[in-house]
UniProtKB/TrEMBL annotation:
Transmembrane parts of this sequence: 29-52, 72-91, 152-173, 212-232
Membrane topology, record value: Multi-pass membrane protein
Organismal lineage: Bacteria, Bacillati, Actinomycetota, Actinomycetes, Kitasatosporales
One example GO MF annotation: aminoacyltransferase activity
Segments of this protein annotated with the region Disordered: 1-33, 340-371
Residue ranges, compositional bias (Low complexity): 344-371
Sequence ranges assigned to domain Phosphatidylglycerol lysyltransferase C-terminal in this UniProt record: 251-338
Domain of life per record: Bacteria
Protein name: DUF2156 domain-containing protein
One GO term (biological process): phospholipid homeostasis
A GO cellular-component term linked to this record: plasma membrane
Pfam families, alphabetized: LPG_synthase_C
Location relative to the cell: Cell membrane
Length: 371
């Protein structure tokens, strides 16, 4: 038998050793959070690049795009920036559909910013974020979040107000090209008409008029399209059970008898349920602002509680929800804490055998309330 000496190592072994010592970058599972923040930053830069008038003296290329392409590029940059701002929360939570949309939007926004601004910095930032998303695509597997009937109306109101405010900034961003001195009422009327693709009372000289018109039309189009998308998007809200799940839960409650103090609340229609692999225990939950909130102790056999809790945590991880529990008994809080590592909140000591009922929150007290 012989031992390998470091000085006698082959070139391939030395190369592998060098690769092991090289930095590997962030873990795939840790990328969605920073990627969401980067989407917000790139989106804000895209909006600013589209709204602020460009300076021809500072951005000069050997090739100048046609006159009609410059206002169109400004509108595309604005639309891409707004879309990235809307997609950033989903990217931060690892949503697969948000990742796909961001990967599609980033190249278009980068090209539009380069045509309008001639800025290599904005182009490099967009392409770097695109590379990060593609390189760590395995970290974006969560499905779309739950829907509710007020999501589309609330989005329409907030998006409409934001488009109106941003439209006023766009209309006033070209003071040198404005003909006359239009007041606030005229500017507001111009924004309202522009969101619907019509001409308003404010008149511009040169290409500024087309830039403002295209940008306002894009804002109006995005408001309408995103609202319709939320209104017609398929999918059932979280917390709706299949009929067989309800029957299985009724069987567990009948077998458990009156031991569970909140058993009569376990059959509410606005909650969801996950079962242990053996089917002898279940956890009821609701999803509130991205928090998967379990209500009380698991239902069923105490020995099967760990399996139901493990399944609960798997669902929260797969859907990028923050797990939390409320209304536990002393026994239930002890099991939740032992099986999941959730931190108990409040003055009670839930791990003690005689401690009063207390809540258990997510990985930290602050994290449980994070949307």
């Amino acid at each position: 038998m012989s031992a390998t000496v470091d000085g006698d190592a082959s070139p391939s072994d030395r190369m592998r050793a060098v690769r092991r010592r090289m930095p590997r970058g962030p873990r795939t599972g840790a990328v969605p959070g920073p990627a969401g923040a980067a989407c917000t930053a790139v989106g804000l830069l895209g909006v600013a690049a589209a709204v602020l008038p460009r300076d021809r003296d500072l951005h000069v290329l050997a090739w100048e795009p046609p006159g009609a392409a410059v206002p169109f590029a400004a509108a595309v940059s604005l639309g891409a920036g707004v879309l990235l701002l809307l997609l950033a929360p989903g990217v931060r939570r690892g949503r697969r559909h948000s990742w796909r949309a961001a990967v599609a939007v980033l190249p278009a926004g980068a090209a539009a910013q380069f045509v309008y601004r001639h800025s290599e910095v904005l182009l490099a930032l967009s392409l770097a974020l695109l590379w990060l998303l593609v390189r760590h695509r395995g970290g974006f597997r969560a499905p779309a979040g739950p829907l509710d009937r007020w999501r589309a109306p609330a989005h329409f109101v907030s998006m409409g107000a934001g488009s109106l405010a941003l439209g006023l900034v766009i209309v006033g961003a070209h003071p040198r090209a404005v003909v006359g001195s239009p007041g606030l009422t005229d500017r507001l009327e111009h924004v309202m008409y522009g969101l619907f693709g019509a001409a308003g009372p404010v008149v511009y000289t040169g290409a500024a008029g087309r830039t403002v018109a295209y940008s306002l039309a894009v804002l109006g189009l995005l408001t309408a399209v995103t609202t319709v998308h939320l209104a017609v998007r398929p999918g059932r809200p979280a917390g709706r059970d299949a009929p067989d799940d309800v029957e299985r839960l009724r069987s567990l409650l009948r077998a458990q008898g009156g031991h569970d103090r909140v058993g009569r609340c376990a059959l509410r229609r606005d909650t969801g349920v996950v079962f242990s692999p053996s089917g002898r225990a279940a956890v009821r939950y609701r999803v509130v602002s991205g928090v998967m909130l379990a209500g009380g102790d698991p239902v069923g056999d105490v020995e099967a509680w760990p399996g139901a809790i493990e399944r609960f945590m798997d669902v929260a991880r797969d859907r990028s929800w923050t797990p939390a529990v409320t209304g536990c008994s002393a026994t239930g809080s002890a099991v939740w804490t032992r099986e999941t590592g959730l931190h108990p909140l409040g003055p009670a000591r839930p791990a003690g055998p005689a401690g009063p009922a207390g809540p258990a929150a997510g990985p930290s007290a602050r994290g449980a309330g994070t949307v």
